Amino acid sequence: MTSPRPLSGEPYLRVLDYTAASPAEDLALDEAIQRGLEADTSPPTWRLWEARTHAVVLGTGQEHALEVHLEAARAAGIPVLRRHSGGGAVLIGPGALNYSGCFYFDRLPRSQTIAGAMEAALRPVLDALALLGVHAHLAGLSDLAAPGAGGALRKLAGNSQARKRRSVLVHGTLLAAPDWALMDRVLKHPSREPDYRAGRGHRAFLTSLQDLGAPISLAALSASLRRILGQIDSESTEPLPSELATAAHLLGEKYGQDDWNLRR
Predict the structure, then answer these.
(1) I need a labelling partner for 123 at 20 to 30 A (CA). Which of 14, 67, 158, 225 fits?
(2) How do residues 88-126 score in pLDDT, each as one tens digit?
(3) What are phi and psi of 39, to 5 degrees?
(4) Is residue 158 within 8 Å of residue 93, measured between CB atoms?
(5) Which residues lie closer than 8 Å to 181 by C-beta, 6 or more apart?
(6) In angstroms, rounded to a whole number, what is the distance separating the alpha carbons of residues 106 and 103?
């Protein structure tokens, strides 16, 4: 698959290494950055983060009863959250590396369609993985997959989008060294699955950087992505004050509330 690389080396692009105090705040910050882009108060941004504690995150339109073993999650002290983008349920936390790319439509080729935006935005991630020795590619609507034992494709990362008037947010969770047993306890078999999953359970369908013999740290992913983007010497470790203020507001009214997280 060949895609243009409109993001590489462009000085306006911010690469932000920042993990918030809680998974709910991480989700709030993703939306805050996109709101800032809509208001011209935030720059186009790649953000890399690894949630400090585990959480189940639902896509905006999912029904929690279909996707999550809610009582098991509560027994394990794991919150069930909901992001403002689509896609399926995922377990984030230590061992799951997250990337969030937020761009103006007019700076991201083919972003008029969901598939086009996904392909263009994820090209730098695929190139960064290749530098780490992982040769993955797009599979299904929004997955990154790599061949497993016997050559069967196995999912390495799931991605989703939030589209506003002027901008698109593409964010994903890359499995580095996940807690497989915990995943089985809290996530049901998805109510919708890509054809290439073919009914396989979580461990048979999913793979990880650890499985593939690649570096599993967020620092390694960040260094590789910065190299692809031509941002090796740039350093940004704190969101803008306006972004943190918006995230705090969203946490209070939305991401920290069961009215949002368990609304379906």
Answers:
(1) 67
(2) 899 999 999 999 999 998 888 888 888 889 888 999 999
(3) -95, 5
(4) no
(5) none
(6) 8
Q: Where are the alpha helices (DSSP H) in the chain?
A: 23-38, 64-67, 70-75, 114-131, 180-186, 202-205, 218-229, 241-250, 258-261
User: Strand, helix or coil at 233?
Assistant: coil
Taking each helix axis from N to C end, the angle separating 241-250 and 23-38, rounded to the nearest 10 degrees, works out to 120
The topology (CATH level 3) of 14-261 is BirA Bifunctional Protein; domain 2 (3.30.930)
- As a whole number of angstroms, the distance between CA 79 and CA 125 comes to 28
Q: pLDDT tens, 66-94?
A: 999 999 999 999 999 999 998 889 999 99
Count of CA atoms in the C-beta half-sphere (13 A) of 94: 5
What is the helix (H) or strand (E) element at residue 173, kind and residue range?
A: strand 167-175
Cβ-proximal residues to 113 (8 Å cutoff; 6+ apart), any chain: none
Contact between 38 and 166 under an 8 Å Cβ cutoff? The reply is yes
Q: What residue spans define the domains of the chain?
A: 14-261
| Cα–Cα distance list, 146 to 8, 28, 124, 220 (Å) | 24, 30, 16, 19
3-state secondary structure of 18: coil
Pairing of the two strands 137-139 and 143-147: antiparallel
Q: Strand pairing partners for 158?
A: 143, 173
Residue type, 194: P
Tokens of 35: 């709101």
Cα 160-220-30 angle, rounded to 5 deg:
30
